[in-house]
Specification:
By secondary structure, the protein is mainly α. It has one domain: ABC transporter involved in vitamin B12 uptake, BtuC (Orthogonal Bundle), CATH 1.10.3470. Helix content is about 70%, strand content about 5%. The radius of gyration is 19 Å and the shape is globular. About 45% of the residues are buried. The mean pLDDT is about 90.
Length: about 300
């Protein structure tokens, strides 16, 4: 059996694949957080619960309404994003003139309430979600077996992340969004409804979390704590990439997923802490993050 640095090739590439899968979800979730923080200056602790809601919504559509995976990719982000719009309009909008800590505490409390409600209804055990028939099986690449669904997740998350970056950084709509973070009164004077823009932006960020939840359901199973287990790592990714940096969130998410996967091969004991060690080092050397701007 071929080895690299004393590690079987199949095991090494298998862990790299797992790292890319995890990195795909880190990138999508941290991207949603960066979009929300960039415009609202709110650290959205509800993001993990909204990711979990996306997975549960897909499971419910499949098992209760007979709506398959492909339709869920379209329906679930809209439905869960609409709940985000309601949260922003009824709760978060009342806190914008207060210290940012109030928004953090509100979203943290909401996350606990949502997770508690789902845990009370469904328990803590995972609920299986079937891989769509079109993506069952995989490809034998010789050095490893690549499941079709996992390849789809990596490609789809890349497309979503790059498309989001392009809209925000390269279009007129994105220019308005960025301007609204710096000078909302000026943007309002051009006839742009800034409060509506803020609401829709929050809903879009929540929709990204829900989309990630749908894509994660066939891999990690569906359970009420799936978001709580992931959101702390995602916050570390956002901090390392730079708070509010769109490209920083994408690149850092994929990069840290790969680093985590390689750590499981060469030093498994550190695999659960390596991302946080990197976060500490980055905060010491560059407090704004790798791609963040000094304020």
């Amino acid at each position: 059996m071929t080895e690299i640095f004393g590690v079987p090739t199949q095991a090494l590439f298998g862990q790299l694949l797992i790292g890319l899968i995890n990195g795909s979800f880190y990138a999508m979730l941290s991207l949603g957080l960066a979009v929300i923080f960039g415009l609202l200056n709110i650290i959205n602790f509800t993001h993990g619960a909204q990711y979990m809601m996306g997975a549960f919504a897909a499971w419910f559509l499949l098992n209760k309404a007979g709506v398959g995976y492909w339709w869920s990719l379209l329906i679930v982000p809209i439905v869960v994003g609409a709940t985000g719009v309601i949260i922003e309009r009824t709760m978060l909008s009342r806190l914008y003139k207060l210290d940012h800590l109030y928004g953090l505490l509100l979203t943290f409390g909401l996350a606990l309430v949502i997770q508690g409600l789902f845990r009370n209804e469904y328990g803590s055990s995972g609920l299986p979600y079937q891989i769509p028939q079109e993506l069952v099986g995989g490809y034998n690449l010789g050095f490893m077996f690549l499941p079709k669904y996992r390849a789809w997740v990596i490609v789809a998350s890349l497309v979503v992340c790059v498309a989001t970056w392009y809209v925000i950084e390269r279009t007129k709509l994105g220019a308005y969004l960025r301007a609204a973070t710096e000078n909302p009164a000026l943007v309002q004077s051009f006839g742009i409804n800034v409060p509506r823009m803020i609401t829709l932006t929050y809903g879009f960020g929540v929709g990204l979390a829900a989309l990630a939840g749908v894509m994660a359901a066939p891999i990690y199973q569906v359970n009420p704590l799936m978001g709580a287990d992931l959101i702390i790592v995602v916050f570390a990714v956002v901090v390392i990439g730079g708070m509010g940096s769109i490209m920083g969130s994408i690149l850092t998410g994929f990069m840290l997923g790969i680093v985590e996967g390689l750590t499981k091969v060469f030093y498994p004991e550190a695999s659960n802490t390596v991302i946080f060690v990197i976060m500490v080092v980055v905060l010491i050397l560059r407090p704004a993050g790798l791609f963040g701007r000094e304020r």
